[in-house]
Design brief:
The protein is an alpha+beta fold and about 550 residues long. It is built from seven helices and 29 strands.
Length: about 550
Amino acid sequence: MHADLSRITYRPERHYSAVVAQQGRVQLDADANEQTAIQLFQARTLAADLIGPHGGPHGTTGFHVELRGGPHELDDLVIGGGRYYVDGILCDATRPRPGTPVPTAPAAGEGEADPAQADAPAGPAADQNWTYWNQPDGFRDPQRPGDRLPSQFPYLVYLKVWERLVTAAEDPALREVALGAALPDTAARTKVVWQVLPLPASELQLDGENPPVQDIRTAFDDWAQKAAAPACRLAARSERPDHGDDDPCLVAPEARYRGPENQLYRIEVHEGGTAQDATFKWSRENGSATFPVDALDGTWVELASLGGDDKLSLQVGDRVECVDTAYSSRGEAAPLLRVEEVDLPGRRVRLSDEPAPGVGRRPELHPFLRRWDHQEPGHHRTVRRGERAGRLRHGAVPVEEGGWLPLEDGVEVYFEAGGTYRTGDFWLVPARTATGGVEWPTDPARRPLLQHPLGIAVHYAPLAWVHGEQAVPDLRLAFRPLAAALSAAGDAAPAATDPADPSQGQGSGGIGTLSTGAGSAQPRSQTTAEAEAQVDETGVVD
């Protein structure tokens, strides 16, 4: 989360159930955020335990997939509305209906307005369902061959789910205008992002055009586990830098962390791959220093603001990333650009190159610049903060495994050898002036422990197996509600189910016996084997 945070304190292994406020104490953002994390973990764990890895409510199960011809003579997928749970996370595919505007009053002498026209929505009638090309967070581009659906059958259609942070820079509606444009924004939001994507059958190593459904599910589960599992680890520590005696600061000379302020360092993978290809970027402000873009003209960028103070402003030599909603949702890694010139009166900056094609040029996607704090070799702060000449690649720092890499002011990171890195993976390192160190888990010998990334946590669920224009077998699962009608007053009580009677307890799902509105008892329990067999045959758990 690229938010202005003090730190992240939520630790699921400690099994805390609530955050308890005490009177007269300082209220911190970390406490409120931990309470939210605890509640989300409990709710989603309960949902996953009851539903399973994925499933939707019977009757309103979302993400039904149909194949049809699409724009530009390309195939398209119709995505049915409704709800679906993936690892306990609710995904809603319901498409909002357009609002009805106030009818336009007729001009003098033109007669009365047409009532039918007044009730009609502005513009063409909107489709009730999303499609592969217009899904809200997909941002698929027909001009990109890699975004098109596979031209050969068969292939699997799956649901990809994760969460990302949204601030007022991306959603101006979050800002309270009554506070004034010069004041900072308030709280940010986390958003559930879902995408319906294709997966060629070759990725699943399945034979034949129409293998058994259970084989498809098993192969996809294996693929999803490998895709979601983190494959790299990092450690952090604080060491007194060699230049410490030459650069006095506000803390004691013997302190290891030499920064003048408390910081939350963010180390984030920029370009993924193995160590020889991967790069990373880092920020002392958790990547929260952002600057909304008003206009883009070549390498000149007009900004809504250049920051509230020197600490959060842009200066010549800073590295920035041009970001918008589509860029964030696609998880791309465009080259980081250098600020070459700052025009304070005009609120403009000149960059070392134009932003990547398609990024930052559509106002409806709310583009902004995000500042990162690693510096260009040769910059006046580089030597002082430990940069080594020739390290940047496409504006980011190449990953070097098996050794400690200095960031600044004594903060160092270590990448474990043999890792595979994914764009967006990140770690957070709180640095504190009071202790002169960083907060990082250690063993009893005070050696830093290697940690997997804090995110991005991605979840997957299979939706359909497409092996022909009219053949789209459904791979979704569904569940029925647990509630049933109560017996009316005066009706005879339902007969109790005898646990020892094997003829009972073989009903349509649930536990025990529930009574209907007429007072008749219907056994609803079933064995695990029977439930699994029913799911395999119908995809629905009664």
